[in-house]
Amino acid sequence: MTPFMRAVGLTHYLPITREDSLMDIEVEKPGAPAGRDILVKVEAISVNPIDTKQRAPKDKVESTPRILGWDASGTVEAVGPACELLQPGDRVYYSGSVTRQGCNSEYQLVDERIAARMPASLNYAEAAALPLTSVTAWEALHDRLHIAIDKAANAGKTILVVGAAGGVGSIAMQLAKLAGLTVIGSASRASSKSWAIDHGADHIINHHKPWMPQLEAIGLRFVDYILCTNATTAHFLSMAEAIAPQGAICSIVDTTEPVPLHLLKSKSVTFVWEFMFTRSMFETADMIEQHRILSEVSQLVDEGALWSTLNERLSPINAANLRAAHAKLESGTMIGKLVIEDWQ
């Protein structure tokens, strides 16, 4: 008899106000893992903008239900014959790959090279808030912007995190502080300003107002690095103005129309993208770096140097709660991370 599991999936790409945009379903439980795959019993999941973008209305129809979700924590139930890093019983956290079925299911297969043991000091919900944002922030700062981890190398350097109270911004500010940078966070609401300060911002500017007068008011002419986690197109002119000569800008958000890249030429500014699924999508030779990043994050959390950005919890994991989570993200008011836990 084929074993089945509970999941939340879709066949049509619909507005989140539709009850059939995300549906409670039963699907076959994955079989024994092959190669370097691990089979994880999912305990908690988090929702990110990638979920809402993947679910966004389009004409495509799935012949079999598609399962979304790219942030999870759980317990390893079985491992493939080539696994070297993890074993049954390990408590793990990971983001998975957009080319495979997601984590909105009771069990999931994931490559061990993009998973790691979760922080021992956290519960499943706290851990599920971390993988996607931590890997994104780490890669953005250290792989794309080439910011050194050594504090001494960053003495006197500054970074502006645009959208500081979001999931990635909340982690990026903490990592930037650990690297010795002066951190300026952008936020426009009292609640998001307070959150950003609590998560590492030394200064706050309002990204809806002219940036340069605000930077000058805190004694800065330019900033050395910019990490844009919100509205790349809308902020591009301000970023071009605020970035230091020979500085670097990294964005994680798609442009919605062409931007005047030539404005960066006179300053010899680097502009680079960060997409944390690149390594898993293309199975790059350095794919295992995400295991190493998550392992380092676990250590930092357990040492008290980095903390979870969990801000809202829902239970149980079902279609109704996932629709509510998608709606919250699409409203643009989310601060930190939203986690859904437990199957009931």
Automatic annotation (TrEMBL):
Predominant cellular place of this UniProt entry's protein: cytoplasm
Gene Ontology MF annotations: oxidoreductase activity; RNA binding; zinc ion binding
Keywords on record: Cytoplasm, Metal-binding, NADP, Oxidoreductase, RNA-binding, Zinc
GO cellular component: cytoplasm
Similarity section: Belongs to the zinc-containing alcohol dehydrogenase family. Quinone oxidoreductase subfamily.
Domain of life: Bacteria
Domain Enoyl reductase (ER): residue ranges: 20-340
Oligomer status and interactors: Homotetramer.
Entries under Pfam families matching the protein: ADH_N, ADH_zinc_N_2
CDD domains per the UniProt record, alphabetical: AL_MDR
Localization annotation: Cytoplasm
Record bears the keyword Cytoplasm: yes
Entry protein name: Zinc-type alcohol dehydrogenase-like protein
Species of origin: Paenibacillus taihuensis
